[in-house]
Amino acid sequence: MLEIKATESVREGSIFGQISTMDHEQLVVCHDQATGLKALIGIHNTVLGPALGGTRMWPYASEAEAITDVLRLSRGMTFKNALAGLNLGGGKAVLIGNPSLKNEAFLRRFGRFVESLGGRYVTAEDVNMKTSDMEYIAMETRHVTGLPQIKGGAGDPSPVTAFGVYMGMKAGAKKAFGTDSLSGKKIGVQGVGQVGKYLIEYLVKEGAEIIITDIFEDKLKEIANASGATIVDPNVIYDLPMDIYAPCALGATINDQTIERLKCAVIAGGANNQLKDEDKHGKILMEKGIIYAPDFLINAGGVINVGAEYYGDYHKESVFAQTEKIYDTCLGILDKAEKEKIPAQQAAIEAAKARIEAIGRVKLPF
Ligand SMILES: NC(=O)C1=CN([C@@H]2O[C@H](COP(=O)(O)OP(=O)(O)OC[C@H]3O[C@@H](n4cnc5c(N)ncnc54)[C@H](O)[C@@H]3O)[C@@H](O)[C@H]2O)C=CC1
Ligand SMILES: O=C(O)CCC(=O)C(=O)O
C-alpha cells in the first residue's frame, strides 16, 4: 500500500488528487433526478474483502464537504475492519440532503446503485439512517446488512458499538490511571444518540460521574433523568476539567479550536474521525500526555455485529466476545505507541496496514 496521509484539506477541486492522497480504489457518484438522490460511495480498500461501511445522510454545506467526509469515513473503515480481525475492506456512503428526503423510492434507488457494484461495497446504518431504511435498500440489493430483527437481521448495531467503546475506554483508563475501574471518574459524553445513550448505561453501572451534552435538549433531559448525569452546553464541554472525554457525535471535534482547551487524561469515544488532522492533532495529544484510544479501533463493535449478519453467521455471544477483545487490542496499541514514542493513531494505523499487507500476500495467485 502507498503511504497514506489524511490531511485536513486535501487538494480541493481535484477528485483524483483527493483519492490518491488517501489511496482510495474508487469513488462512485450516484444521481437520480426523480427521487432527488445524490449519493457518494467511497471504496477505500478491498484487499481483505468487500468494502463494508454504513451510509450517512447529512445536509452537507457543499459537495467538497461531502466528498471529504466519504473519503475520510471509508478510509477509517479499512483500518477498523482490519484491526477488528474482519475479512472485510473499507467503504462508506454519504447521502447528501436533509433526512426528510428519505422515502421508499429514494432508498430503493440508492439500493440499486449499491447492487450495481456487484458486492464490492456492502452498506449498513450510520448517522441519520435506521434499520428500517435498510429494509428498503434490501428490496434492491443483497449487499446490505444491519436489518431489523423482525426481518431476520441482527437489528441496531449501536449497543455493540457502545460496548466496544466502553472496552476501549477501560483500556485507556488502565493506561492513564493504572486501573480500568471507571468508578468515580468524571466522564464527558458528547452526543447522546444511539452510541452515546448505550455507553452511558455502562458508565452508570460502573459509578462514573457523567457529564452530557447534545444539540437536542429533549434527548438530554430524558437521559439525565434516567442516569443522573449533569447536562452542559455543547460549547462548554471542551473547557471542563474531566478524566475522560468521550466524543460520540460527529467527527473532527479534536481540532485547532478545541485541542488546547481539552483538560482530560483520556479520550475514548464512538465518533468516527475524531481527529480533524490525524498527523497534527494526534501528535499534539501525545505531547500533551493525553491518552487517545483511536476511534476506529474502539468503535468497531457495530461493524463486528453487521459483518456477522452479512456473512449469515450471527451469534450474539460471539459478537460480544469478539468486541470485548477491543480492550486487549487497545492496550496493545497504547503500549506500542508509548514504546515507540509515536501517536496512538499512528500505531493503530501501522498495525492495521501490517495485517492488510500480510493477508494481501497470502491472497497472491498460485
Ligand atoms: N451507531 C453505530 O453503531 C456506530 C456509530 N459510529 C459513529 O458514532 C457517532 C454517533 O453515531 P450514532 O450514535 O449512531 O448517531 P446519532 O445520530 O444517533 O447520535 C449522534 C448524536 O450527536 C448529537 N450531536 C450532533 N452534533 C453535536 C454537537 N455539536 N454537540 C453535541 N452533540 C451533537 C446529535 O444530536 C445526536 O444526538 C457517529 O460519528 C457515527 O459515525 C461509529 C461506529 C458505529
Ligand atoms: O455500525 C454500522 O452500522 C456499520 C459500520 C460503520 O459504518 C461504522 O463502524 O462506522
UniProtKB/TrEMBL annotation:
| CDD domains on file | NAD_bind_Leu_Phe_Val_DH
Q: Which UniProt keywords apply?
A: NAD, Nucleotide-binding, Oxidoreductase
Give me the residues that bind NAD(+), please.
191-196
Annotated catalytic residues: 92 (proton donor/acceptor)
Which Gene Ontology molecular function entries are recorded, alphabetically? nucleotide binding; oxidoreductase activity, acting on the CH-NH2 group of donors, NAD or NADP as acceptor
**Entry-linked SMART domains:** ELFV_dehydrog
The question of whether Nucleotide-binding is a record keyword is answered with yes
The record's Gene Ontology biological-process terms are: amino acid metabolic process
Q: Which InterPro entries match?
A: Aminoacid_DH-like_N_sf, Glu/Leu/Phe/Val/Trp_DH, Glu/Leu/Phe/Val/Trp_DH_C, Glu/Leu/Phe/Val/Trp_DH_dimer, Glu/Leu/Phe/Val_DH_AS, Glu/Phe/Leu/Val/Trp_DH_bac/arc, NAD(P)-bd_dom_sf
According to the entry, every stretch annotated as the Glutamate/phenylalanine/leucine/valine/L-tryptophan dehydrogenase C-terminal domain falls at 155-364
Task: Tell me which family the UniProt entry assigns to this protein.
Answer: Belongs to the Glu/Leu/Phe/Val dehydrogenases family.
What this protein is called in its record is Leucine dehydrogenase
Source organism (scientific name) = Algoriphagus alkaliphilus
Query: Which lineage is the organism of this entry classified under, starting from the top rank?
Result: Bacteria, Pseudomonadati, Bacteroidota, Cytophagia, Cytophagales
